[in-house]
């Protein structure tokens, strides 16, 4: 039931709430991801959960804010590649890639 709730909810939260990072103290965790959620880039909202990785369905730039700081970084991404990035926000402005998926 917990899994269905996680997969069924939007992957955005209010701007006043911080993204939770279940891997903050365990950055060396390996193994398969158990959840995947399509991400709608937003300039105002952080992700509900900091993912272990991000991938895109179509090549392009993705503007992110990493979980460890507050600076925007533009990452050029190729479709189908899993990028091991712990991001707390994926910005709409400047993001040209589509089909963005976060996994954890």
Write a brief structural summary.
By secondary structure, the protein is mainly β.
Structure description:
There is one protein chain. The chain is mainly β and 104 residues long. The protein contains one helix and six strands; from the N terminus they run αββββββ. The strands form two sheets. A three-stranded antiparallel beta sheet has the order 1-6-2, with no helix packed on it. It has a three-stranded antiparallel beta sheet with strand order 4-3-5, with no helix packed on it. It is globular, with a radius of gyration of 13 Å.
Q: In sequence order, what are the helices and strands, one letter per element?
A: HEEEEEE
Number of helices: 1
Q: Strand percentage, roughly?
A: 25-35%
The tally of structural domains comes to 1
| Range of helix content | under 10%
Q: What is the average per-residue confidence, as pLDDT, rounded to a whole number?
A: 84
Poorly predicted runs of 5 or more residues:
1-15
Number of strands: 6
First and last CA, distance: 17 Å
How is the main sheet built?
3 strands, antiparallel
SSE blueprint and pairings:
Layout: H1 2-8, E1 36-38, E2 53-55, E3 60-66, E4 72-77, E5 87-91, E6 101-103
Keywords:
mainly beta, 3-stranded antiparallel sheet, globular, 104 residues, disordered N terminus, 6 strands
């Amino acid at each position: 039931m917990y899994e269905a709730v996680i997969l069924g909810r939007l992957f955005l939260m209010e701007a006043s709430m911080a993204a939770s990072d279940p891997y903050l103290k365990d950055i060396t965790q390996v193994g398969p991801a158990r959840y995947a959620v399509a991400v709608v880039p937003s300039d105002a909202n952080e992700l509900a959960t900091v993912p272990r990785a991000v991938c895109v369905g179509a090549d392009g730039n993705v503007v992110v804010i990493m979980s460890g700081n507050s600076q925007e970084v533009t990452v050029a991404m190729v479709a189908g590649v899993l990028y091991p990035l712990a991001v707390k926000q994926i910005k709409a402005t400047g993001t040209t890639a589509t089909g963005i998926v976060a996994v954890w």
